[in-house]
Predict the structure.
Amino acid sequence: MSRSVISKRPTWPRWARRGLMENIATALIAIGFLMLFQPFALSLYTYSFITMLAGTVMFIIVSKFPE
């Protein structure tokens, strides 16, 4: 009798799954918008574009991760 071999897909760590990382990327984009629209600190306004860009790039990369 031959046993059928069940191929197991490699499982990703829990922190590297799509749901959590997409939420973090969305929060980063939201923080960037808050930094853009606040009238108090010029340094926050300065780094708002970089923050939103990092969140957007992270969202694009993370959307390829498994569920």
Summary: The chain has a mean pLDDT of 87. The first helix runs from residue 18 to 37. Helices lie at 18-37, 42-62.
